[in-house]
Specification:
With 160 residues, the protein is of the alpha+beta class. The protein has 2 domains: 62 residues; 84 residues, 3-Layer(aba) Sandwich (Glutaredoxin). The protein contains 8 helices and 4 strands; from the N terminus they run H-H-H-H-H-E-H-H-E-E-E-H. Strands 2-1-3-4 form a 4-stranded mixed β-sheet. Strand 3 and strand 4 form a beta hairpin. Helix 2 runs parallel beside helix 4 and helix 4 crosses helix 5. It starts with a helix and ends with a helix. It binds FE2/S2 (inorganic) cluster. FE2/S2 (inorganic) cluster (FES) binds next to helix 6. The site of FE2/S2 (inorganic) cluster has 11 residues, from helix 6.
């Protein structure tokens, strides 16, 4: 069964359960992403039909919220803090460094699917800024060298 078709039964169960909920679109999109890991393109017409919306309306909401992914999640997610305390301690330069190292922009994913880059606005580690979160673990007092090591580590396991 092609990948995109294997998700249809789950999408239909979610639509059956949520379609009559007021403001159903966001809960449906969250449920689809939670169940599948992202919102596949073939979910869009199913959702639009169930909620009597246009394809453009559904796609507009998906693209408006950066939390919704339209491709499978990367193996690693790096969330680099871009809030005030971290910015005052070099986070902008670190962000530029990691974008260049990965060849992707914020919210992008490397072509091999290893790593997604996400900006975040405070990780609660301001006293030890600049900080990032890699796969749920916070790393603080970042230096350019430490950032490069952390990013390199996401790729070395693939070739090891
Ligand atoms: S501003 Fe970056 S951790 Fe709070």
């Amino acid at each position: 069964m092609p990948d995109e078709l294997q998700h249809l039964p789950l999408i239909h169960r979610i639509l059956e359960r949520e379609r009559h909920t007021p403001g159903a679109l966001l809960p449906i999109l969250h449920a689809v992403q939670k169940g599948i890991g992202y919102v596949p393109d073939n979910a869009v017409p199913e959702i639009a039909h169930a909620l009597n919306l246009s394809l453009a309306e559904v796609r507009g909401v998906i693209s408006f919220y950066h939390d919704f992914r339209t491709t499978p999640p990367a193996r690693h997610t790096l969330r680099l803090c871009q809030a005030e305390s971290c910015r005052s301690r070099g986070a902008e330069a670190l962000a530029a460094q990691v974008r260049e190292q990965l060849g992707v922009d914020d919210h992008g994913t490397t072509a091999d699917g290893s790593l997604s880059l996400r900006p975040v606005y405070c990780l609660g580690a301001c006293a030890c800024s600049p900080a990032l979160e890699l796969d749920g673990q916070v790393h603080a007092r970042l230096t350019p060298e430490r950032l490069r090591e952390l990013v390199d580590g996401c790729f070395t396991e693939v070739t090891a």
